[in-house]
Specification:
By secondary structure, the protein is α+β, with helices and mostly antiparallel strands. It contains three helices and seven strands; from the N terminus they run E-H-E-E-E-E-E-H-H-E. The strands form two sheets. The protein has a five-stranded antiparallel beta sheet. Strands 1-7 form a two-stranded antiparallel ribbon. Strand 5 and strand 6 form a beta hairpin. The relative contact order is 0.22. The protein binds zinc ion.
């Protein structure tokens, strides 16, 4: 397994719509395993393929020990009440904002073996599913912010992005300590 570098805001791959995976192969599994390792190295709780520069419709999630590899995931049911919470993103380091989302979602996907699964998540897990599935459609959490909050988030990013030449964030292997109490997805 390898820790991959993470693409940050400004890399066009983050705005592309991913391609559905026709068949889960060893290549898909290698991507999944590398994505888990990368997510853990970044102390994240979710990671989507475009964040590592890939176009497959694949994401991984690990919220409080509930780990899922999701291939071709779709939200098939969302229900309220809507909840607002602060989100961050491994592709927009050190930028945070409140996002309102349905409190509970049911996701249908294929797992690492290509078997169909259906999983319902609420709270942080449900939020994480929605954030990662958005990534697979080129959507980022900052898109949900009000005009003013988005402008201030982007101003903060203007300062941060200097650290990531070529829009690439290079991680060191092993779990790193997050400097921010909130989780990044
Ligand atoms: Zn993200």
């Amino acid at each position: 397994m390898s820790v991959l570098s993470i693409r940050v805001l400004g890399d066009p791959v983050l705005r592309e719509v991913t391609q559905p995976v026709a068949e889960v192969t060893d290549e898909t599994r290698r991507l999944i395993d590398d994505m888990f390792e990368t997510m853990y190295a970044a102390s994240g709780i979710g990671l989507a393929a475009p964040q590592v520069g890939r176009r497959e419709r694949v994401c991984v999630v690990d919220v409080e020990g509930a780990a899922y590899a999701l291939v071709n995931p779709e939200v098939v049911h969302a229900e309220g009440p809507k909840a607002k919470a602060e989100e961050g993103c491994l592709s927009i380091p050190d930028v945070y904002g409140d996002v309102e989302r349905p409190g509970r979602v049911t996701v249908r996907a294929l797992d690492r073996d290509g078997a169909p699964i259906e999983v319902t998540g609420e709270g942080l897990l449900g939020r994480c599913f929605q954030h990662e599935i958005d990534h697979l459609h080129g959507k980022l959490f900052i898109d949900y912010l009000s005009f003013l909050k988005r402008r201030s988030a982007l101003a903060k990013w203007e300062e941060e992005k200097e650290q990531y030449p070529g829009f690439i964030r290079i991680l060191k292997p092993g779990r790193s300590a997050s400097e921010h109490p909130e989780e990044e997805l």
